[in-house]
Amino acid sequence: MRYLPLSQSDRHEMLATIGVSHINDLFKDVPKSALLKEPVDLPNHKSEMEVDREMRALAGKNIPAGSVPFFCGAGAYRHYVPSTVDHLIQRGEFLTAYTPYQPEISQGTLQALYEFQSQVAQITGMEVSNASMYDGSTACGEAVLMARRVSRKKKAILSGSLHPQYIEVVKTVTKFTDDVAVFNPVDTYAVDDLIAQIDDETSCVVVQNPDFFGNIQDFSKLAEALHEKNALLIVVVTEIVSLGAVRSPGSMGADIVVGEGQSIGNGLSFGGPYVGLFATRQKYVRTMPGRVCGQTVDADGKRGFVLTLSTREQHIRREKATSNICTNAGLCTLAFTIHMTLLGEKGFRHLAHLNHAKAVMLADKLSHIKGVKVLNKSFFNEFTISLPIDAAYAIEKMAEAKILGGVPLSRLYPDHENLKNQMLVAVTETVTEADMDLFVSELKEWVKC
Amino acid sequence: MLNNQGRQTDVGTASQQTSNNFTTHSGNRGLEQDELLIYEIGDTKRTGVDLEEVWDFEPRLGGVTRDNEIGLAGLTEPETMRHYTRLSRKNYAIDMGLYPLGSCTMKHNPRLNEKVARLPGLGDIHPLQPISTVQGALEVMDNLAHWLKTLTGMPAVAMSPKAGAHGELCGLMAIRAALDKRGENRSIILAPESAHGTNPATATLCGYKVKSIPANKQGRVDLDALKSALTPDVAAIMLTNPNTCGLFERDIIEIAKAVHSIGGYFYCDGANFNAIVGKVRPGDLGVDAMHINLHKTFSTPHGGGGPGAGPVVLSKALEPFAPVPYVIHGDHGFELVEHISDKGDSKDSFGRMTAFHGQMGMNIRALAFMMSHGADGLARVAEDSVLNANYILASLKDVMTASFEGPCMHECLFDDRFLHGTGVATLDFAKAMIDEGYHPMTMYFPLVVHGAMLIEPTESESKQSVDQFIGSLRHLVTEAKAGNKELFSGAPYLAPLRRLDETLAARSPILRWSKPENE
Ligand SMILES: Cc1ncc(COP(=O)(O)O)c(C=O)c1O
């Protein structure tokens, strides 16, 4: 077997050194009845070429986003990732290292994390960031739990235009604690309703910007109302590229910003692994979940980086830890930070501007189709349209014509009859005008009949 | 190029000079190069990407437009390549040498796995594309589920948890949902003192109190103590097996029976599955739920801290409570159950743990690893990992103090008794390993022995590599016992940096770069 270096004679020699005659002598603590007498019922080993072939066959049964005009978003976006990013994250020194608990031999990972934290804090307009969570949705759940620790109050109010699967995740993590999560109807422009719900029990309000339907708002007023009641504003950003064009949540008064960082440096990968961003105010850092990297000096006085403030974490605090997270999004944060470094201020702003320009272009083209309406007053690179027919049906039909035309709202809101004809359309820099025209002409066909 | 005379060079007078205390103008030391922060190299004007020009258009951002400079530093492509390449060379990695980090299973990461995860048909698909366009992806999930269920002898598996700790949460939530359904409100999770920190942290997240159960002299759960702790208030026991001392819990079947007899569940932390994969099925031991760290047993890269994946196998009793989404076989191929509905199998599901469907990229890599090894090869993985660990134990136990009687499973545990009187602590000993060219072993975990050193070589090491490692450790023990304290107290001497001041870092945290005041 190509991955196993021990030879048969090595094994014999080693057993002799140990002083046993058979490998199963080393398994003598396993109850006899449980030690398998023969291999489990699965295929035997395969060569690299055979596995490669079988995997290609499986891959061949899917339609890759890059092979067709592609407009899906809803929390996962297809951006162009420069070749440099994927090359660098595959360097064995990054790829095959563990969590940097031994800083003397982990400065590569640690410095990259420090730079990552700096970038995340900058784009969100916050003071500090951690070294990542699993993804945006789990980061959102963690933010709600953190708001409770900070405010010492239990009631989290969730906007109805937060990503529905993020809402589900919050529902799950608060299910078995005494936290109370308050859910709201789907309605983008209900900020005043949210404000009206804030009371003395409220720990936080969670909003998304741009929201799940693509609309952009200024939440400063909401922040003020919350701060008056010693409660926190949590802003979720699922399309992090938007922050190149849209005002940062920090500037609106957010206390915690969580984000899905997949758009920068990371591919679609059918939903994971992604990278959860988590940023907050300096004064809350000791209640923050997850690892964090900080600057220090070594014995010779040279600058270096270490994982720090670990008295919040499970390996030290155990049942009193701020979170149970251990393994995080490591390599995906590296991809994020390398891509962000390649972009820089100039590239990041340009990328955001380009995404917005293309989205505006497609929105205008679509709104000329009879029966199709663009529902947004504002948007960044994604918006909601309504059709005269079932949107899931239209999307399925377009897929048959090799166009991945967006995400039907019914996929996420199966019980909302009123959203059945609506779909989300995302446009990134990867979409060409020719792609848009194909999409428009195909959609025209389907809404006609 | 040859030198300008086109002749070979010899060492000349270099052999008479020493290289100690040699300083350079640049601060670099040959191939060891210092590297500044991106903010100190680049600026907000520089970029490493070319994007198409944007035309004039009327923005529709609702007036919520960014009007301040973010301050992001950019680098051109060659500068970026060099920055991260230089940084990478300051890391230790499996690709460079034995990585004996107990409990973490730092095994070889095959590059075939990386290659197939990047096939456009697997890496470039959107989680919400029409189901008809992702049948191959669902088949990957279904295949992996089949391998995991067969290897563990369990009837069901939840595929969405994103790492081991997330899997623990999944398992405990399924247990809690099952108890709720029975109308029982139990409040305690039993866990041994040797448990990994994530176990108690997870129990708290799930609304439980943790009660610790002591170990016996053999490093295993004290069965009598366990039995007397099994009050009707106990929801579950959380037990790692093989345990964090590297030992198989001999009484495991009896433990499972005892927990079941009071109506509780058995959660097994499967972080150490590598020791028994293909040899023992947890389903035969009475386990109700167990997470599997794909980034340990099934070789998906640790990536400097993540990502991982933590699918959870479940017993028949817990299967109805599994989280959404999950794959089913429908009339037109594979389907994905994404919502809980009152009708159908999902009605008792405890909910959703993450947006989308979990760590697909990790699933592909793990499946490629399993297919490569096959049923025959996976049993060999367990055997070779156990063999390497026992060989290390046998080769060191005359000079280091093994905490428990062997044989061990895939990792061997020593404590610091052999260092008594030397003035060398576990930490110093571990740091000296860095100078020998090794990543230290896991230190001070598990908490049940003093100054723990937990060594896990994995099956990826050749005998030659293990022998060299043993040689280095024996040498260090000899030096410690000979009173050569400086070798340890100042270590490492030969790493990119000397020991770092972690106290300073925690006392006045600097967690990000900021523009220097005087600019
Ligand atoms: C015994 C044990 N349990 C649980 C975990 C947590 O797993 P993860 O880091 O994947 O969340 C670990 C990982 O370090 C472990 O060693």
What tags apply to this protein structure?
heterodimer; A: alpha/beta; Aspartate Aminotransferase, domain 1; Aspartate Aminotransferase, domain 2; four-stranded antiparallel β-sheet; 13% strand; B: alpha/beta; seven-stranded mixed β-sheet; 14 helices; 13 strands; binds pyridoxal-5'-phosphate
Write a structural description.
With 449 residues, chain A is α/β, with parallel strands linked by helices. Chain A folds into two domains: 67-80 and 345-448, Aspartate Aminotransferase, domain 1 (Alpha-Beta Complex); 83-340, Type I PLP-dependent aspartate aminotransferase-like (Major domain) (Aspartate Aminotransferase, domain 2, 3-Layer(aba) Sandwich). Helices cover 38% and strands 13% of the residues of chain A. In chain A, strand 10 (373-374) and strand 11 form a beta hairpin. In chain A, helix 5 (107-124) runs parallel beside helix 12. The model of chain A has no long low-confidence stretch (mean pLDDT 97). By secondary structure, chain B is α/β, with parallel strands linked by helices. Chain B has two domains: 112-369, Aspartate Aminotransferase, domain 2 (3-Layer(aba) Sandwich); 374-494, Alpha-Beta Complex (Aspartate Aminotransferase, domain 1). Helices cover 32% and strands 10% of the residues of chain B. Chain B is built from 14 helices and 13 strands. In chain B, helix 7 links the parallel strand 2 and strand 3 (209-213). The longest helix of chain B has 37 residues, at 360-396. The two termini of chain B are 45 Å apart. The model of chain B has no long low-confidence stretch (mean pLDDT 96). At the A-B interface, helix 1, helix 2, helix 3, helix 4 and helix 5 of A face helix 2, helix 3, helix 4, helix 5 and helix 6 of B. The complex binds pyridoxal-5'-phosphate. Pyridoxal-5'-phosphate binds next to helix 6 of chain B.
Relative helix content of chain A: 25-40%
Q: What's the rounded overall pLDDT mean of chain A?
A: 97
Topology, number of strands of chain B:
13
Distance between the termini of chain B: 45 Å
Supply the helix-strand structural class of chain A: alpha/beta
Q: What is the CATH topology of the largest domain in chain B?
A: Aspartate Aminotransferase, domain 2
- Proportion in β-strands of chain B: 5-15%
Q: Do you know the CATH architecture of the largest domain in chain B?
A: 3-Layer(aba) Sandwich
Please give the share of residues in helix of chain B.
Answer: 25-40%
First CA to last CA of chain A: what distance?
A: 59 Å
Would you identify the regions of chain A where 5 or more consecutive residues have pLDDT less than 50?
Answer: none
Whole-number radius of gyration of chain A? 25 Å
Shape of chain A: globular
Protein chains sharing the most extensive interface? A-B, 210 and 207 residues
Biggest sheet character of chain B: 7 strands, mixed
Largest beta-sheet details of chain A: 7 strands, mixed
